[in-house]
Every structure is written in structure tokens, then in C-alpha cells.
Design a protein that fits this description.
Helix content: 40-55%
Order of helices and strands: HHEHEHEEHEEHHEHHHEE
Number of helices: 10
CATH architecture of one domain: 3-Layer(aba) Sandwich
Oligomer: single chain
CATH superfamily of one domain: Vaccinia Virus protein VP39
CATH topology of one domain: Rossmann fold
Strand content: 15-25%
Low-confidence stretches: 1-5
Radius of gyration: 19 Å
Length: 270
């Protein structure tokens, strides 16, 4: 990945659409997380790596007219999509800025909450983002993450093509400085950033037939096809054969698919 494209899954229109759908799928988890933290009216919140939607609308509703929300996103297309959504829905208490998650240039200690979802698992140098978010919150403010860990993603009965695709995606991640097992590290990353009272909520779900997230590893693989084939991690023929075999297996209702291990972790600034 070049300097301008450090996000694991890239910024294609298809990826932006996936992120918009993901925001809806993960809304109940976000609501649960913000309930536990106690996000409410009057809060000033920032979402790092908000993409085309993220948690912006949920946060807007929670902080109300006396609060405010800032979204920070590096990709111009995602920023434009987020701003359009806000305008179309007449959401007035949210602004979206184009900026770097590792150096936002936002005022230090000016937010009650800094949050990010599935960002650390997709970028190199994730501790820099944690440190930046810790710097943005006021004393007693919260820093919260929802992250994924590829160490648990069950697919049964086993299938060699599934293992091959996952292995290629992990190889690609390592080559580009990305840790796909980062969720398990987030609690200690929060502590390393000086946060206290760190709490953890693990989430694992089954994806039956009809669930749109059942095939999301295939979506990732197709999204990255040109990169992983171009870097010689897998041949085009083997890639196509593996995708076809996995799709056939996923179409069988008897195939068990469990999600990655998702971990919500949050802490308070002393």
C-alpha cells in the first residue's frame, strides 16, 4: 500500500457501500457500547475513521442539540458521502473533517468521548491512533474501540479453500504492517496510552443463511483481489477456484459460520 492508501480494504465505491451497510449492521453494538459508557445529552464526541457513516448518526441522537459530534476521515470520497448523509437527514450537530487519525490537529482535551470502530485492524501503527484519541479527551473522558480479531473465525465443516483465502489475507496484512489480531491487544494499548478503568465486552455471532455478513470474508478477498494477485500471494486461477469453492460451501445451510472475535474496549482518562 502506498502512503495515500494505508487502509487495508482500500477506498473503492464498493468498499464505501459495504461500510454504509456495516454501520446499520453494527448499530445495536454501538448503542450497547455507548450505553455502558454513559454517552448522553451535552457530550462532545469525536469519531476517528468514521468513513461514510460510522456511528455519527447514533452519536448525534445521543448527545442531542446541546452536544456536538466531530467525525474525522482521511478519504475524501468517504467524507463527501458522510456530509451528504448528514445534509440529507438534516443532522445539524455533526461535522465531518478530512484528516489523519494519527494527527487530527483537533484541540487537546476538548472531548468527552473519542471512539473508533474497526479502524485499528485496518491500518499500520495503530498505537499512534490510540495515543491521539487519548490526547483528545478531557480528564474523566472516555476512549472507546470496537475492534476485530481474526484469531476466531470458525467455518465448519473445514474447507481448504477457506483456509487458503484467510491465509493469503493474513499474509497480505503482515506485509503491510497490519495486525489482524489486534482486538485482543486493545485493552493493554489503552493502558499504555495512560487510560484507567479499562473494560472489555467480547462479541461473537453466528451468521446463518440469509445473513449478509455470512460471506464477508469473500467480500474482503474480492476487494483485495488485484493487490494479493499482483503481489504474487496467490495466482489468479487459484484465487478464482478458492472463491468459487468457498461460495459453494457458504450456500450450504449446514455450514457453520461464526464471526471474528469482536472486542469492545474502553477506558477513562485520569
Amino acid at each position: 500500500m502506498g502512503q495515500g492508501d494505508q487502509y487495508f480494504l482500500g477506498y473503492s465505491p464498493g468498499e464505501q457501500e459495504r461500510l454504509q451497510r456495516q454501520a446499520l449492521w453494527l448499530a445495536p453494538d454501538a448503542t450497547q457500547l455507548f450505553d455502558r459508557i454513559g454517552v448522553g445529552p451535552g457530550f462532545r464526541a469525536v469519531e476517528i475513521g468514521c468513513g461514510p457513516l460510522g456511528c455519527l448518526e447514533i452519536l448525534s441522537q445521543r448527545v442531542g442539540p446541546t452536544g456536538s459530534v466531530v467525525g474525522v476521515e482521511i478519504n475524501a470520497d468517504a467524507v463527501a458521502l458522510a456530509r451528504k448523509h448528514l445534509a440529507d437527514n438534516e443532522i445539524k450537530n455533526v461535522e465531518v473533517l478530512q484528516g489523519d487519525a494519527k494527527a487530527t490537529d483537533l484541540p487537546r482535551e476538548s472531548f468527552d468521548l473519542a471512539t473508533a470502530r474497526l479502524v485499528l485492524v485496518n491500518v499500520p501503527q495503530p498505537q499512534r491512533i490510540v495515543d491521539e484519541m487519548a490526547a483528545l479527551v478531557k480528564p474523566s473522558g472516555a476512549v472507546a474501540f470496537h475492534e476485530a480479531d481474526w484469531g476466531l473465525h470458525l467455518f465448519d465443516p473445514p474447507l481448504a479453500a477457506w483456509d487458503r483465502l484467510l491465509g493469503v489475507l493474513l499474509d497480505y496484512s503482515k506485509l503491510n504492517g497490519i495486525d489482524q489480531f489486534i482486538a485482543r491487544r486493545v485493552p493493554r494499548m489503552l493502558r499504555a496510552a495512560g487510560l484507567v478503568e479499562v473494560q472489555v465486552n467480547p462479541i461473537v455471532r453466528a451468521y446463518p443463511i440469509g445473513n449478509p455478513r455470512r460471506a464477508f470474508v469473500l467480500q474482503f478477498a474480492k476487494n483485495l483481489r488485484d493487490r494479493i494477485v499482483g503481489q504474487g500471494l496467490i495466482s489468479e486461477v487459484e484465487f478464482n477456484e478458492s472463491v468459487a469453492a468457498v461460495k459453494f460451501h457458504l450456500d450450504d445451510p449446514a455450514t457453520l459460520v461464526l464471526s471474528f472475535l469482536n472486542i469492545q474496549a474502553w477506558g477513562r482518562k485520569p
